[in-house]
Amino acid sequence: MARIDVIGCDAGAPKTMAAPQHQLLSCCDCLLASRRVLERLQPWSARQEMHSMDPLDTALTWLTRRYRQGKHCVVLTSGDPLWFGLGRVLLQRFPPEDLSFHPAATSMQQLFARLKRPWQDVTWASLHGRTTDNLVAKLRHHPSALVVLTDPCQGGLADVAATLRSTQMISCYDLWLAERLGHPTERLRQVQPDALPADVDPLNLVVLLRRPNPRLAPLPWFGLDDGIWHQHEDHPGLMTKREVRVLLLAELNLPRCGVMWDLGAGVGSVGLEAMRLRPHLELHAVERRVGAVPLIRRNAFTAGCDPRQLHIHGASALTVLHKLPDPDRVLIGGGGDRRTVLEQAAARLKPGGRIVLPLATLEAFASVQQQLGDAGLEIHSLQVQISRGCPVGGHTRLQPLNPVLIVSGRSPHRNPPAI
């Protein structure tokens, strides 16, 4: 009766294979494997008809013919055949009931065994025949560990490093290169993104391990990278991106001194960068998410802000606004009762003050413009579409961020009363 056993193995096969798999090798009629493994099998497995895996199309044609003849076939492949292996192709060609899979450790399992690190929290991205879009999407969630399955022809170590730069995460991660895992010549080494080695073996994996504290170069005066900000573990990536942050700060037109409200502050990135630009500005950051207060304080320390000018309120905006001094500038983020918050902020805004809101939907954009106009504020609005350059096969493509609508309301200056 026709049958195909698909056996995963490591670089030491057949010596390192378990006894049940050895038994399958000894009793099968046909054997399909790589040339390297076939050479090792020749001395003790002479009765089986053997065929090389390369080229794959020819090998699959040979396997199909033997299967139709009712032969018992064994296919030797690396790791787990059903994890980026030959298993998917075989399931497309043969009935599942005639296939049996015997997995070995995957390259990812071997990698974390070498690193001596638990890997239940690991995410992965593949560059095999793909652009770096998947890698960019995973990085936006700030994973604690991210394995990149590289493709020598499409995307390798240099593309991973370039993607770290384009997503502004280069200060967040240590970069490790694993080459020829399981082979006698295997190598695991940490590499520096700005000094990549030239002697990279084509058989490699790249792993990014998040640093508990980013290694920071001297911070720029304006436009801090996304990677310097600590984020909520349960909601990573929910942060105003650098390019949008720059535009929000421009719309705020910060005074040299005064009071700023940052309502729905998130991780505090916009308000804290405002403090860096205007050290005498008094910032009231309001964020109701659990853990926001210590997180914003941590980011304030990272950004070098004066703690005496910073007031953090771990509550919803409507419960604390009455306690805050009247503002010169107001930034209103997402969440909560925006309409009521905006109404109270407009009523308290000092002459010449500004309210700025980043928005994600057209409905919110129309509603906010109407409300600012009804409050007697001068309105300025714009739509922002930012794309970042990302590597793709030795070239550069543009990776778009989500579009943002920005609405600003300015309170007119009031003339002083006549004497």
Characterise the protein shown here.
With 419 residues, this protein is α/β, with parallel strands linked by helices. The protein has three domains: 3-104, Cobalt-precorrin-4 Transmethylase, domain 1, CATH 3.40.1010; 109-210, Methyltransferase, Cobalt-precorrin-4 Transmethylase, Domain 2, CATH 3.30.950; 226-410, Vaccinia Virus protein VP39 (Rossmann fold, 3-Layer(aba) Sandwich). The protein is 29% helix and 26% strand. It has 13 helices and 19 strands. The chain has helices spanning 19-27, 35-41, 56-68, 87-93, 107-115, 133-139, 157-166, 242-252, 269-277, 292-303, 317-320, 338-348, 362-374; strands spanning 3-9, 30-33, 49-52, 72-78, 99-102, 123-126, 145-149, 173-179, 187-191, 204-210, 257-263, 280-286, 310-313, 329-332, 354-359, 378-384, 387-392, 395-400, 404-410. A seven-stranded mixed beta sheet has the order 13-12-11-14-15-19-16, sandwiched between helices. A five-stranded parallel beta sheet has the order 3-2-4-1-5, sandwiched between helices. Strands 6-7-10-8-9 form a five-stranded mixed beta sheet, with helices on both faces. α8 packs across α9 and α9 (269-277) runs parallel beside α10. The mean pLDDT is 89. Pathway: Cofactor biosynthesis; adenosylcobalamin biosynthesis. This is Tetrapyrrole methylase domain-containing protein. One of its GO terms (molecular function) is protein methyltransferase activity.
